[in-house]
Every structure is written in structure tokens, then in C-alpha cells.
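Hey, weird one. I pasted the Class I SAM-dependent methyltransferase sequence into the form twice and got a warning about non-standard characters only the second time. First submission, copied straight from the form history:
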Amino acid sequence: MRVRTAGGRAARPVGAVTRGTTNPNRLRRMDRWIVAELTPALRAADPPPVAVDLGYGAAPWTAVELRSRLAAVRADVRVVGIEIEPERVAVAQRYARPPELTFRRGGFEVPLDGLDGQEGAGGPGRAPGAGGALLIRAANVLRQYEEAQVAEAWALLRARLAPGGLLVEGTCDEIGRRHVWVALDREGPRTLTLAARLGGLERPSDLAERLPKALIHRNVPGEPVHAFLRDLDRAWAAAAPYADFGARQRWIATARTVSADWPLVGGRRRWRLGELTVRWDAVAPAPA
């Protein structure tokens, strides 16, 4: 995943082709959280903010949907779908609506050159990352990589964020019922979010199979994320009487119990949506 440069610019996309599996509305839960998290920054951005859908897959549905959801807050937001496979980029062009929705070839280097005068990682005279993306969403991209490659990929992507921007990297199932993602800013990871369709969820740890690559192999005794999922399951079991009032009330009761021992971010309003966000430093991999 090393960046190859020529004249200061990436000579070729950085990364590997993904499977490309995609379905309409697959990322709706992640997008809902993103919109809530970034609404103040979207409204305040000047010039119009840029959002990136990295690795959108064989069809551009997720980029089209991201543009629609962000535009509900900021009508002139620009979404750039980036794919490493040239044929996928060619197919997506029929859905392009410049300048609000465009598609280009690229990888973890996130090529934004020529977009509102952006150049490299900030352009002449700019701080690194200035003029970058307010959002980079990388869903179901890093799952195929090795755990040891995650830190480098995160570093490349964070370098392309604008001040106040977010990198959202995670995994979901094929129809978008179960998601887990990490939110990072230019300094590093900040939070981990679990989101699910609560109907049919037997226990919170069912989401373990959707943990992002940085954590998927850490769900073992002695690791913080394992302890977090264990405590969620215990609280879920204790909240069984709330099931008579619906899975949502049981989830809220579970979150309230867990919040006594874990640094949850957000509150009942997010819990009602089947979300649970915890500070990254509480669940990060244990030091070697």
C-alpha cells in the first residue's frame, strides 16, 4: 500500500480492487449518523464542502444516495465517488451531475486535484490537508486488507481531510441491517459506533462479525472490545423484561446500563435509532 509518487503526485491509485458488492440503501444507517454528526460543519463550510465515497463498488448507488442525504442539509455539497477499477468509473459516469456529483479513478490517495483548485494534499502555501474533504466514507473497503495495513490506510485518508473533517470507515452486511464503523478526524480515531435493525437482533454481540478490520480479530478475551460486547450482552439479557415494550426500549435500557461503565457518546435520541457510540480509546486494541 505504499504511495508511489512522480513529481509529487501519485503515479497510480493506491490500494486493491474490492469485490464491488453494492445494494441500494445499504449504507443508510451510516449516512444517517454522518448527516447528524456533520450538519454544523456542512452548513458552515465555505467554499461548498466536498464529500468522498471511497470504493463505491460495481454500481454507484451509495455515492448517489450520499449526495442526496447530504444535500438535504447543504444543497451545494459536492460528492466525489472514487473507485480503483476503471470500468466501474466508466459505468458510473452516466449518473454524474457535475459539479455536485462526479466520479473518478483513485484509491487511498483520494485524488481531489482540480476540484475547486485543490492540489495535492493542500496545494502551494496551504497546510497539509487544507482544502481536502469534509467527509471520506470508506465502507466495506478495508475488510479485505490485513490488520497491519489499517494504520497506513487510515493515515493516507486522514491526510486528505479538511479541518473539522471526518473519516468514517467500517463494515455492514449486504442489506444494511448491521453496521459497525470507526469515526476518525485528522488526529486519529475518535469513536466506534454500532448500528442495527433491532428487530431480529438476538444479542448485541451479533454485530461482532461486522467489526472493522482494526477490531475484527480483537474480539477475544483480554481485549477491550471483547469486554465491551460482553457487557452489552449482559445488559441486554438483564433488560429482557423491556422486550414487552419493543426491541427499541430494550436497546435503550441496555445502553443506559452500559453507560455506567463505558464512555458512551450521544444519548437516548441516538439509542432510539438502534445506535450506540463509544469512545475509541475505551475499545482500542490492547497494546502488544
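That's the output from the first submission. The warning seems to come from a hidden character in my clipboard, not from the data itself. The longest helix spans residues 28-44.
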